[in-house]
Structures are given as structure tokens and as C-alpha cells.
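Q: Here's a chain of 157 amino acids. Please give me its 3D structure as C-alpha cells.
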Amino acid sequence: MTQANSKKELLPSQVRLVVEVDGHPVGFLNLDLDRLWPLINHRKRDVVPVEWMDATIFDSIMRAVVMKRLMSRLQGRLYQTLGDEMVKAELDVEIVTLKAETAAQVFGRTKTEIEKFVADSGGTAMDFYTFFWEYLLEDREVTDLKKEWKTRDIPTR
């Protein structure tokens, strides 16, 4: 192994950015620098702009500076995006909870009430639960849940 290769191997090949919310780690962003660096560094010339510096040292310093700045920018944007998306996720919790509450008011709160409703409507419990989960997952507004149940696509048996 040459001296240039040994210096290059001392550089970290992976960077881990810890994502924290209110001081508690909630996840990590791992970047493989050996794969990322060629996508960033498109220099076609091998001439070092600082002639008095060893090319390997210059490349290592350049990579360290660029990666430090990249991680700083990523961290700032990541926290901004995460904050924005957490607000949206909090709203999603409220929407799903309200939709479940609406379904409970329309169809019943207990398993016995659901079984009776399903039996009276000619469907199966599986039909109802499929309908319920699709209703929770859909983004569209449903104004009449009972009408939706009656007009749903009923698979042929």
C-alpha cells in the first residue's frame, strides 16, 4: 500500500447525522462518503491549485471541508423539514381520530354493535373492516358514511 492510499483510508467513509427532537434522538441519517464524493467532486483536472501542498493532503482537506459544510446545510434543512412535517403529522393524528370517532357514532362503538350492523346490512365483518380501514386511509372527505357503506364496491363471492 502506498502512502497516498494509506492517508485516503484514514478518512471516514461514512458520516452519521443524529436527528433529535426535544433533545431525544429519533433517528439517524447515514451517508456513505465513498459513494457520495464522486457525485460531488466533478473536477476533471488533477492539478492542485495550491502548488506547494501535497495533492493527497489537499484532496483530504477539500473533502473534509465540503462534507462538513454539506452536513451543516443538510442538518439545517432536515430540522426545518422535520419540524414542518411533524406539524402535518400532528394534524393527521387529529384527522384520523376524528374519522374514527365519526365511524363509531355512525356504526357503533362495540364489536357487538358492529356485528349487528354488518348482519343487518348483508355484509361480512371482513367487508366492514376493509371499508373502515380504507376510509381511515383515504384523504377524501366523506359526508355520509352510511351512504358510502351502502354504495361501496362489493366483491363478488
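Q: Can you summarize the key feature?
A: The chain has two domains: 3-88, 108-150.
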